[in-house]
Amino acid sequence: MSSKLLDCCLVDFSHPPAPPHLADDASDDHFEPEDTVDEVNTFDGRLIRRLGQYLTPYAGYIVLALAITLGASFLGPLRPWLVQKGIDNYIVVGDLEGLQYIILYLVLALVGEGILSFGENYLTQWIGQQAIYDLRTTLFRHVEGQSLAYFDRTPVGRVITRTTSDVEALSDALSSGLVSVLGDLFKLVFIAYFMFTLNWMLAVVTLLVMPLMVWVTFWFRRNVREQYRETRKQMARINSFIQEHVTGMHIVQLFNREDEEEDRFEGINDKHRAAHLHTIFYYAIFWPSIEFISNLALAAVLWFGGFRALGGSALTLGVLVAFIQYARQFFRPIRDLSNQYDTLQKAMAGAERVFSLLDTDESIEAPSAPVELDAVEGTIEFKNVWFAYEEDDAGTPDWVLEDVSFRVEPGEMAALVGATGAGKSTVMNLLLRFYEIQRGQIRVDGHDIRDLRLRDLREHIGLIPQDVFLFSGSVRRNLTLDDPSIDEATMRRAAETVQADQLIERLPDGYDQDVKERGSSLSRGQRQLLAFVRALLYDPDVMVLDEATSSVDTETEALIQRALERVTEGRTTLAIAHRLSTIQDADKILVMHKGEIRERGTHQELLAADGLYRKLYDLQYADQVAPRGDGARTDQRVQT
Ligand SMILES: Nc1ncnc2c1ncn2[C@@H]1O[C@H](COP(=O)(O)OP(=O)(O)OP(=O)(O)O)[C@@H](O)[C@H]1O
């Protein structure tokens, strides 16, 4: 038999062996320490069924992939069988014409297997990616629908891990997982079938090394799993260390802690290296051992078969050559199966965590029969509202708002004032239904907000927070939030109205200026000005705003003040005021203290009442007055 023919028969299209490194761990780089308990020991039927739901839409493609795999699994083991026929039936008897047919069949089998393997790989990956796409979209939609209470409790890192690396861990299982396992099993059955039909005794000899192979594989799996877990744990530590230090880098630099932090990092990094090297150690033993055992099987075949063939028994040269190939082919699916076991186990751990995210539902309940809210006049009413963000261990709510009641009439401007932590921002969050109240009622135009669709409610109420969040992207994108109904002219008009146009045009790229992460390239005041434009563009009937306090230069402050007047014109407004000077014309001032509304009235009424408001006012007054040499004091901002 020509060496070319032999080479061609030895080609194996089955999956390449898993590389002797932790390539598939690369996706686990968002782990938090608490997330590292990731091995589940059993295959949970419930989890598999739930995962199966994501594959159901692709059932037809899965059947097709299985059929293709069956074909590919058959063609591989068929080749040695053809070689045997070629040698024994044609080469030995000198029938070259017959041999040509065998060569043709071999080439066809080889090409067929190549094509089918391509189809199998592509199709299984395609199915897996479709399922992953669906799952990730479901996860994001789920996360988007959660109330803010959920985000208060859930660390950002966890949500990221669940939607990225945990989903990724499922990817292999959903794509090649099932099909590959079946493919490997098919292959084993076909190889065993051909071996036993060709020569059962030689088949038994080939399989004699099996117990050794199984033992080595189990030994390797057990050890490497522990090291693998340790590596992930150390990787998680590196991640959280870097995450924390990048965020708090200015503190590290401010206090000259660079060297100490570097030492700490080196410590963690060293542990990671050690764990990784341990893993590599086991891999370095495993692969040569497997290679050795396969060759042992080969040697056994050569020894036993060779003696018998030469000894003139029924064993032919063709059978011997075929067995040499089967000995090589047989162990690959076994090794792949052990890899698949690991993949599936990781996937189960990922699935458990992904589903636990899906099962935690703290979304705001939609009304079963929502009230249609087309136009809003703008009456806002809080009726005996009680609210707590948290409960203590005994389940007693830690009240942040206690029996809060007030009413703002259409077109009125109401201001909320009070010391820090009094509950002002909470009132706003509740009006926009970011959280659910425990007792009482919040009404807009007489409708309980729980009877309104969230969309309607938030469409009619605009919010300008104190700390404005900007997405990375252009200023334009941040203003319009990619709403196609807002054209360029409308956007520019809105910017002019609140005089943000000058600010934007001063930026190097104007409206196309790239806003860096979270708008860190813009000052707090500038960001708030952009939020005014954004709010105006959505033209809400009620405006809720939290006045920016610090980090605002005088020019921006004047701009904000004017913007505020423009934006609140003709709209019901509820404003949190930090500078009492800005709310002297408010129709109503509500003074909050420790979650209660203690005083209410106009600026003059409240001053006259000589209570909390007066105290706040005097405090701010003192704060904003520059002492003069002659002892007289001049109010620079607040005129009484
Ligand atoms: N997400 C939250 N989870 C738990 N407690 C919260 C949360 N947000 C606010 N609180 C608590 O609720 C109370 C009221 O906070 P709130 O932010 O409403 O006060 P504020 O009057 O707006 O203060 P500031 O003027 O500083 O913004 C505070 O004690 C605060 O610690």
UniProtKB/TrEMBL annotation:
Its membrane topology: Multi-pass membrane protein
Ranges that cross the membrane: 58-78, 98-119, 173-194, 200-220, 280-303, 309-327
InterPro entries per the UniProt record, alphabetical: AAA+_ATPase, ABC1_TM_dom, ABC1_TM_sf, ABC_transporter-like_ATP-bd, P-loop_NTPase, Type_1_exporter
GO MF, any single term: ATP hydrolysis activity
Top-level lineage group: Bacteria
Pfam families: ABC_membrane, ABC_tran
Residues in coiled coil: none
Keyword Transmembrane helix attributed: yes
Keywords associated with the record: ATP-binding, Cell membrane, Membrane, Nucleotide-binding, Transmembrane, Transmembrane helix, Transport
Domain ABC transporter: 380-619
Major subcellular location class: membrane
A GO cellular component annotation in the UniProt record: plasma membrane
UniProt domain ABC transmembrane type-1: residue ranges: 63-346
Cellular compartments annotated: Cell membrane
Protein name per Swiss-Prot or TrEMBL: ABC transporter, ATP-binding protein, MsbA family
Species of origin: Salinibacter ruber (strain DSM 13855 / M31)
